[in-house]
Amino acid sequence: NAGVTQTPKFRVLKTGQSMTLLCAQDMNHEYMYWYRQDPGMGLRLIHYSVGEGTTAKGEVPDGYNVSRLKKQNFLLGLESAAPSQTSVYFCASSNPGGYGKNIQYFGAGTRLSVL
Amino acid sequence: EDQVTQSPEALRLQEGESSSLNCSYTVSGLRGLFWYRQDPGKGPEFLFTLYSAGEEKEKERLKATLTKKESFLHITAPKPEDSATYLCAVQNNAGNMLTFGGGTRLMVKP
Question: Which helix (H) or strand (E) holds B88?
Answer without folding.
Answer: strand B84-92
